[in-house]
Structure formats: C-alpha cells, structure tokens
Design brief:
Structural class: alpha/beta
Helix content: 10-25%
Number of helices: 1
Shape: globular
Number of strands: 12
Strand content: 15-25%
C-alpha cells in the first residue's frame, strides 16, 4: 500500500516536471525565433506594412516612395512614419521620404480624405523629405512636427498644406537645408512655429521657405 502511495505521489511530479521542461523548451524556441517588437503605432494610423506602403530598400535603409494604389483607408485617420521597420530578422531604418511620395494624396475631396494627421514624431532616423513629398496635401491638419534628424527638406516639400497651423521644430539642434517654397501656400490667416529655446540657431520665419509672413514665432 505504501508503495502505491509513493507511486501516486511521484507520478504527478514527474508529469509536471516533463510538462515544465516542455514549456521551457517551447518558450525558449519562441523567444529565439521571434523578432523584437517594433514601435507601437498610434491608434487610427495606416499600418506600416508592405500591404499599404511602397518603398525602396538600400542596405539597411528604407525610402518611402508612396502608398499602394486603390487602398481602402476609411478606417484610418493618421499617416504615421516609424523610425524602423522589422522584416523577419532584418531591421530597416526609415531614412527618407522620396520625391512626390504623397503628392496630392490627402485632400478633402479625394479617396483618402479620412487621413487628416501626419505623425513624424518618432521618425528619429528620417533624414530627407523629398521634393513635392507632401505638396497639396490640404487635408492634413493641426501640428506638423519635423524631427531633429531631418537635414534636408526638398523644393515644395510641404507646399500647399493649408491645413497645418503649427510647425513644431522644438527639437532641432541645427537648421536643415530647406528648398525654395518648401512651405509656400500654408494658411495665409496665420499660424505659429515652435522653435527650441536656443536663439543661437537663428531660426526665423524666413527659415521656412515660402511660409506666409502672417505666421509667428511666439516669444518664450
């Protein structure tokens, strides 16, 4: 009888031990093969995937060339650009937005009229915004944040984006190269530019080529 009791007490422990080892092996295997999580997109943003975006890859750098055609974006309200894109075991830095990438893509009357926000807030690897990249995207509204990593904004890069009323350049440590008319056609009724508390940078309204003179830099 004692022998049977010993067997009954040991068997569950052995089973649990085997189960635990199996779980450990399974967990270790999953951890080894899984990719590190990418940045979390804001709610309502277009998924940053190959199903929605076109891009070119060069080494570990990625240049966004635009959106796929004939997309249904009614469920989304934000164009979000992340710092990186994970593809299997490969990480790509999102470094550029190509010439004409989103030209005339987001207007009040077009198919993508629900997209009203442009979020570049954490695009910390973004160096270049190409010529005409966002020209005539009049449906984009609110604040345009340009990260400090950007060192080149092309000719007419944001021209005609009348919906923005704030340009946030508060993290800049240097003034990027800005093409002529990059900000022309912004709301003539006025807006504000937020600059870093560093007068030595010499940022003025004139820095933002083509920006209407009705815009101001608020005193800090």
């Amino acid at each position: 009888m004692k022998k049977n009791k010993w067997i009954l007490s040991v068997v569950p422990s052995v089973i649990l031990g085997i189960f635990g080892v199996g779980m450990l092996i399974s967990t270790t295997s999953c951890s080894k093969n899984s990719n590190p999580p990418g940045p979390t997109p804001p709610e309502g943003s277009i998924p940053f995937t190959k199903e929605y975006f076109d891009w070119d890859e060069n080494g570990n750098s990625l240049t966004i060339t635009g959106l796929k055609s004939d997309l249904d974006l009614d469920a989304y309200n934000t164009l979000w650009i992340p710092p990186v894109f994970l593809d299997g075991d490969t990480q790509y830095n999102v470094t550029s937005i190509a010439n004409n990438a989103f030209r005339d893509a987001f207007n009040n009357g077009d198919a993508y009229h629900t997209i009203t926000n442009l979020d570049l807030t954490i695009a910390i690897n973004l160096n270049t915004i190409g010529q005409y990249a966002f020209e005539d995207c009049s449906g984009l509204t609110g604040m345009l944040t340009i990260p400090s990593s950007v060192d080149n904004i092309g000719y007419m890069g944001f021209s005609g984006c009348v919906g923005f009323n704030i340009i946030n350049a508060s993290t800049w440590t240097a003034i990027p190269t800005i093409g002529n008319d990059a900000f022309s056609g912004f709301n003539s009724l006025g807006g504000a530019v937020i600059v870093p508390p560093n007068p030595g940078l010499g940022i003025t309204i004139g820095t933002f080529k083509g920006l209407p003179s009705t815009w101001i830099i608020p005193l800090v």
